[in-house]
Amino acid sequence: MEIVNIYTDASIKNKKIKAGIYITLPGVTLSSSKEYSENLYNCFSNVVMAEMIGIDSALQFCLKEKYIKLFLSKKIIIHNDNTSAINNMSSTTEKIGKKHIEKIKNDLNSIIIFKWIPRTENKKADKLTKKYYKYYNISTKIIL
User: Fold this and answer.
1) Cα atoms found within 13 Å of the Cα of residue 124, Cβ hemisphere only
2) Confidence bin at 144 (pLDDT 50/70/90)
3) Which residues contact 22 (CB under 8 A, 6 or more apart)?
4) How far apart, in whole angstroms, are the C-alpha atoms of residue 34 and residue 131?
5) Do residues 140 and 30 make contact, with C-beta atoms less than 8 angstroms apart?
6) What b/e string do you get for 60-94 counting C-beta neighbours within 10 Å, with b at 16 or more?
């Protein structure tokens, strides 16, 4: 099964949540940044929730019509440097989140694994959160 590595990071600044996503799979690199409105910040104003929103943003990116074929029937590894966010996303007890993740797994016919990594291994996603884009800014680069 082909492996897709997705690195995610999020930050909170000026009452806005910013998420960065860096994706690698054989022959393709994708990156995305997204800024969420103050309304979302008002509901989820802590770092762990921001990181979980960033992880969910990466999963939603996989479902985008333009890119979904890249993620079908793959082993998707979501990397993040926040232990609590990874533990929450991996939890088998949180029913709403579990159903959401299971639906995405089924929609993609993929395996999804959440993996903690040290901050030093998450620099590309971290850099994307600092760009503060308002909407997805996708760049695709073919690796030769």
Assistant:
1) 13
2) very low
3) 6, 7, 8, 29, 30, 31, 124, 125, 128
4) 9
5) yes
6) ebbeeeebeebbeebebbbbbbbeebbebbbeeee
The two structure tokens encoding residue 9: 């990071």
One-letter amino acid at 21 equals I
Domains of the chain (ranges; CATH) run 3-142 (3.30.420.10)
Other CB atoms within 10 Å distance of the CB of residue 114: 19
Residue 87, SS3 per DSSP: helix
Distances (CA, A) of 125 to 7, 27, 73, 106: 6, 19, 24, 26
User: Is the pLDDT assigned to residue 11 strictly greater than 60?
Assistant: yes
**What is the reported pTM?**
0.81
User: Is residue 18 within 8 Å of residue 33, measured between CB atoms?
Assistant: yes
In this structure, what is the dihedral angle of CA atoms 74, 80, 82, 88, given to the nearest 10 degrees?
-10
pLDDT tens readout for residues 54-78 = 898 899 999 999 999 999 999 999 9
